[in-house]
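Lab manual, section 2.4: Encoding a predicted structure.

Procedure: take the sequence of the chain (114 residues), apply the prediction step described in section 2.3, and record the output as structure tokens. A sample record is shown.
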Amino acid sequence: MAITINTTQYETAHGHRPRGQKVWIFEFNLKTKDSENSEPIRIGLSGLYQDAEKEAKRLISLKYPHQDITIHVLPSFDFSKSERNRLFNRPKRGRSSIPIQKPRPPTGEYPGEG
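Recorded output:
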């Protein structure tokens, strides 16, 4: 079984090899005896490119063992820094990522009771 990565679509759209941290989209087709062309299967993973590539290979090899598959890295969106922070749950400096709520006073067992 061989899994190869093709980055041509990504490089054509962005002008450089895949790198950095973002949401990565990997696409591949399964060739079966019944049909040469099947619907593409897409996997979306977030994080560093190297980590996402390894995880995509691992998931595909577990799901489709003993098959030769070429994975295509699709063009991705470039998010602003604040959008990346929101997507990857990075807290702003000096702030907690978990909002702190004051406890509510006890109420009755049913709504409307107090």
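Check your result against the sample. The chain has a mean pLDDT of 78.
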